[in-house]
Amino acid sequence: MFLRNCWYVAGWSHHFPEDAPVARTMLGEPIVLYRKPDGAVVALEDRCCHRLAPLSKGRREGDDLRCMYHGLKFAPSGQCVEIPGQSIVPPHARVRAYPVVEQDRWVWVWMGESALADPALIPAALGHGDPGWWMQTGHLAYEANFQLINDNLLDLAHLSYVHENTLGRNSMSWANSKPQVSRIERGLRISRWVVNNPAPKYLDQPQGMMTDMWTSYDYMAAGVFLLRTRSYAAGAAAASGMQAPTAEPLWTTLTSQAVTPIDERHTVYYYSGCLDKGFASEEQSKAQFVIFERAFAEDKAMIEAQQQVIWGTPEPRMLGTSSDHALNQFRRLMAELIDAEQLPAKAEAAE
Amino acid sequence: MFLRNCWYVAGWSHHFPEDAPVARTMLGEPIVLYRKPDGAVVALEDRCCHRLAPLSKGRREGDDLRCMYHGLKFAPSGQCVEIPGQSIVPPHARVRAYPVVEQDRWVWVWMGESALADPALIPAALGHGDPGWWMQTGHLAYEANFQLINDNLLDLAHLSYVHENTLGRNSMSWANSKPQVSRIERGLRISRWVVNNPAPKYLDQPQGMMTDMWTSYDYMAAGVFLLRTRSYAAGAAAASGMQAPTAEPLWTTLTSQAVTPIDERHTVYYYSGCLDKGFASEEQSKAQFVIFERAFAEDKAMIEAQQQVIWGTPEPRMLGTSSDHALNQFRRLMAELIDAEQLPAKAEAAE
Amino acid sequence: MFLRNCWYVAGWSHHFPEDAPVARTMLGEPIVLYRKPDGAVVALEDRCCHRLAPLSKGRREGDDLRCMYHGLKFAPSGQCVEIPGQSIVPPHARVRAYPVVEQDRWVWVWMGESALADPALIPAALGHGDPGWWMQTGHLAYEANFQLINDNLLDLAHLSYVHENTLGRNSMSWANSKPQVSRIERGLRISRWVVNNPAPKYLDQPQGMMTDMWTSYDYMAAGVFLLRTRSYAAGAAAASGMQAPTAEPLWTTLTSQAVTPIDERHTVYYYSGCLDKGFASEEQSKAQFVIFERAFAEDKAMIEAQQQVIWGTPEPRMLGTSSDHALNQFRRLMAELIDAEQLPAKAEAAE
């Protein structure tokens, strides 16, 4: 079950070149994306209405896309505008067109009712394309349901275990700290002090330096993670009374991540890492990202293994613990949003 | 759903060597084929009646085939003639035997009721083994239902798109020409002029030479394609009033192709290419076949992609266009033949 | 359908190192095995009760095993003894623990009701770890149901066909000899003279030497094969009146083999080969084992092919022959044992 009236990341801007249509499966639906000569990205159903060949094997011609099986041509609206060997093109010869917005170096596709596609609902990625920040980008394909990835990102206690040798820096501070969780519009805000944590090795900090980090992120439907981490000298957390800090941090790190379901069993995970140019060099930004990608590979190994166990368990039941607080709240929020978008359909069915 | 009372190509003659049984799955049934010492091919159910081991892992002994799991031996009739350690062989110890005819370098197997296996129903391949023609042969395995391959071969408009750089020769002549379609016994005859088409580069024709081609093929149940192409200097089509030509062509090309279902999701495609020895050299025949095989790989890529889309679509619906005329007629013809062969079974069930 | 109240081999002792948990699927259940500091092997459900991550990706800490997703720690009893970030551990936070016995270089796991796990039910492997015998070990994974492997081992007539070039030594003696079959506690005893059989080439016997072999094995639920083969000069069988021999053999060979279901479609096969140190050298023992492993690869090829045919047959039916006697008896024995262990459950359901 997917939330449909929502923007989903279909890829990084650089995934969509000028002259080659790109195939994506999102929420179980085959989609072809291509750039028009003016650079705008078009997203159509990747299935010719004639004999169901994928349009992603087609050819862009001007603003249009031609199916390269029998030559039907489609406009960005999805309307078929040419059927070779036939003078009349019936109006119902069309494929579905999806609203697209390119923003923050991501291409976003609206998977629900087109009339409801409000670009204001797109979560604003942190630092993407901002000249003040070094920015690194990547993505990973998972053989797992997207919810397990959301769960993972909503309970960062796992940093002390899954990532003990990477992001966790051999410290129990993530497992032992308790986040504040509050509901925001279409998401949750999750903040905490992680205290007395070793500074990362890729920065030029004195050896053995310990830090307090104020980590705060918004987790937005259907799976967008926007984290700002502010690092201070150890003691800052206590000095602030464990409240949000007002002082300038030593440095700040940003990461934006997006979880896009391919289908019920496969997911793509897009992520960035941004580091303040005023504080760190490009080499340090790249060194940081090497750690990020090692950690994301650790997540993938754990989550895919967890998913295999779940798929192999006839009636999987999970035992709640106190660290599940945020992920349970987010699962409820998603269920509410899905329920809400299905109400009109249900009302119609009841008439 | 398959047409059972029909001859299907099980392979090229050279696929069946003298001393090694060969396994095939046809219409979902496991079949073992082997040559007797006199060269005749035998086709048996590839499943020992004892413990269901495949006889294709067995050993030919004289005219018979021995299962190499526990040693049961079967005659070409399918009757078990020896059970090691047991003096009596019960008459019901047998496997199914299939009628086989080797003709035109193809081994044909009758998949229906043996009593109805009439060799006269085998479509006559064009030029196979005829000393006046160069002959090249090949085959391809598809992950697709056989109907999609039949559809492809019944609408050659796709040559202008799928094969624009190979058989289509960058010309719209295939997409723009309309074939005449007529019903023949167990098939369709499909003919047309393809006009003002560049001569193929592998022949010694003057550069830039344009031709008119009279292309005519019979498409026979359950999927045999028999095409003769006669090439003339451009203008011949108009001169003949767009009717079948009576003049001698500059040259003629033949191709015979057979589509054999492995099961509902897999198919084998066998094909030849023949070129007149009086007109072309062996090198030219081979050069032509290189183009053929490039084109068949293009078909395979498109059809398998189309098949994946269809399998991924809950209720696939196709929009008819005028170029679907022949393939729709052939689908109806196949449905009639399948219905007809199931009438006796249905009548029996109704009693 | 599996027999649950039974010991199954989970692997060779050397498969379980000191500091790395090992994952196994047995009878469809995910199991993690690890050694405590005292060397004892623990077997737990390989599925954390929190979010179902596999404990086999965890870390041994003392006698316990910690899940490396969110840090829950489990004792050898299966009881969770720590939940990070939470002071109370509820008693129902636990995973299943399986009885384990390490014996004869095999690690045995009891897959049924723990209270019934009687180590006396473990079949005694032949020669394992006995300093008087050379011992070689191996294992193979099958894509096949375990029953087909049991069937294979219960009808050694196949040695004359499947193994004609390895164990069968190009002789029909296995196919032509009839075993005596008797029922023993939880198994069958199967004995026979195999007469006039060439001596194996890897032993220093005179060229062309023929032997009579008294081969006797116990086949124990759910799939343990314990074979002792005594070789004599040809004529010994007749001299003994075809009864069990009392004289000292020229040499003796032992092999113990265990068939463990992974699930309904996959199986692991563990096997040893032992040769008398008083008779043969270590090189000869290794040379014998090369033949064994060649033969077991022959079995695997045949059985996996047979399994594919069976899976592809809608209603597979087998024709009985006289050589199926023992395997049919063993299938009945297994059905009785499975029925018996399900009686209490059925009685409960009926109340």
Structure, explained:
Three copies of one chain form a homotrimer. Chain A has 351 residues and is of the alpha+beta class. The first copy, chain A, has two domains: 7-120, Rieske Iron-sulfur Protein (3-layer Sandwich); 133-332, Naphthalene 1,2-dioxygenase Alpha Subunit, Chain A, domain 1 (Alpha-Beta Complex). Chain A is 21% helix and 33% strand. Chain A is built from five helices and 18 strands. Chain A has a seven-stranded antiparallel beta sheet with strand order 12-18-17-16-15-14-13. In chain A, strands 2-3-4-9 form a four-stranded antiparallel beta sheet, with no helix packed on it. Chains A and B meet through loops of A and helix 4 of B.
* CATH evolutionary superfamily of the largest domain in chain A: Naphthalene 1,2-dioxygenase Alpha Subunit, Chain A, domain 1
Ends distance of chain A: 24 Å
- What is the typical, i.e. mean, pLDDT of chain A? 96
The description of the largest β-sheet of chain A is: 7 strands, antiparallel
Enter the CATH topology name of the largest domain in chain A.
Answer: Naphthalene 1,2-dioxygenase Alpha Subunit, Chain A, domain 1
What sort of overall outline of chain A do the alpha carbons produce when their principal axes are compared? globular
CATH architecture field of the largest domain in chain A: Alpha-Beta Complex
> From the helix content, strand content and strand pairing of chain A, which structural class follows?
alpha+beta
CATH class category of the largest domain in chain A: Alpha Beta
Please work out how many helical segments of chain A DSSP would assign. 5
List low-pLDDT spans of chain A.
none
Order of helices and strands of chain A: EEEEEEEEEEEEHHEEEEHEEHH
How many distinct folded domains of chain A?
2
Taking strands numbered 1, 2, ... along the chain, how are they ordered across the largest sheet of chain A? Answer: 12-18-17-16-15-14-13
Task: Report the sheet-strand fraction of chain A.
Answer: 25-35%
Looking at how many chains there are and whether they match, the oligomeric state comes to homotrimer
Which pair of chains forms the biggest interface, and how many residues does each contribute?
Answer: A-B, 26 and 27 residues
Radius of gyration of chain A: 23 Å
